[in-house]
Amino acid sequence: MALTGNWSYPTTMRFGAGRIAEIGEACRAAGIAKPLLVTDRGLKSMDITTRTLDLIEAAGLGRAIFAEVDPNPSDANVEDGLKFYRDGGFDGVIAFGGGSGLDLAKTLAFMAGQTRPVWDFEDIGDWWTRADPDGIHPIVAVPTTAGTGSETGRASVITNSATHEKKIIFHPKMLPAIVICDPELTVGMPKHITAGTGLDAFAHCVEAYSSPHYHPMSQGIALEGMRLVKDYLPRAYADGTDIEARANMMSAAAMGATAFQKGLGAIHALSHPIGAHHHTHHGTTNAVCMPAVLQFNAPAIRNRFGPAAAYLGIEGGFDGFCAFVDQLNDSLGIPRTLTDLGVTDPDLDTLVDAALRDPSTGGNPIEMTAENTRKLFEACL
What pLDDT shows up at residue 4? Predict the structure, then answer.
């Protein structure tokens, strides 16, 4: 079966090896005449980035890049990026990279024509209606990792540098117009990034599947996303040049982000403040927290994971699934605890407070309280 195709979600995804060659035409189709490529510092000088800039320039669309993006992008990055974007007279962004680059790029396109501060558009109630939709510029997204699925999302996660809180900025028009998913761009990912980003996709699927909200389509997407990660992440980790595995992991990433329209949960509620305060890798943090959260949610999800385990070819129902998660983490070199991940002297009061205010708590199948959330953090440490 050829791993290539075009799909619409309503975003249009162009999927397949070598399709980065279409970047110039994709920009024009999205209505972008002068794009700014936004990525992170680590990707700035890599061959895949240079090659993409060459393709953009050859298409007559200029050559411009902004790469001052932190691993957990912040409001300071937004401010610097907006000045660069507006001063340069750009009319759209190419969101290039992993979750950090994609999230910042989407925020720059969203904020390009806004007059209110970014925090006025946090994903609370109907705050998104405060935005001027005509001031939102088009986005072409090019993921170079297979994890966050930000390329199919209508939101970005930005860290408030004053409070060290991760905030979700949301608007329906933040959804990229066109996505180029080219698995060849992920071939050079280091093993630990392959593992961490892949397990981020897995966490999205697990939490969406666990969420009590009603969304049968997301439920099915989450289940198949888990299967793709189970079957192909070990292969991508073992051999980074395995294009079939890389392609299926890119699909799993997009599926996870699509599925979590049904909701996330305690994994992300814990991971967001940990990442904001201790600067840990998001997907790896999710993976460390997942075993404890599964046990925390067991009374509500045990029966639901029986059929899921059977579909995934895992014996033993929910307990077998939990054992599989432990084994998968170990095989991918994931630390067993947050302490092993480098989280030292955490301020539990601050972390608990931030977790309970995180929008992800609303999708957890067990109600999160100050008492049980503290115990959950302690179990992860």
Answer: 80
Q: Which two tokens stand for residue 67?
A: 């790469």
Count how many residues are written for the chain. 381
Interval 111-162: pLDDT, tens: 999 999 999 999 999 999 999 999 999 999 999 999 999 999 999 999 999 9
Write the DSSP symbol of residue 168. E
> What's the token pair of residue 77?
């990055």
Number of H helices, E strands in the chain: 14, 9
The conformation of residue 138, written as its DSSP 8-state character, comes to: P
**Strands laid side by side in the 92-97 sheet:** 5-8, 12-15, 178-181, 139-143, 92-97, 35-38, 65-66
pTM above 0.90, yes or no: yes
Nearest 5°: CA angle at 121, between 109 and 222?
80
The answer to whether 68 touches 39, Cβ cutoff 8 Å, is no
Sign of the C-alpha dihedral computed for residues 86, 179, 362 and 194 taken in this order: negative
Q: Which of 158, 153, 149 is nearest to 173 (CA)?
A: 153
Cβ-contact 353, 366 below 8 angstroms: no
Q: Cβ neighbours of residue 126 under 8 Å, at least 6 residues apart?
A: none
Whole-angstrom Cα distance, residue 103 to residue 118?
Answer: 13
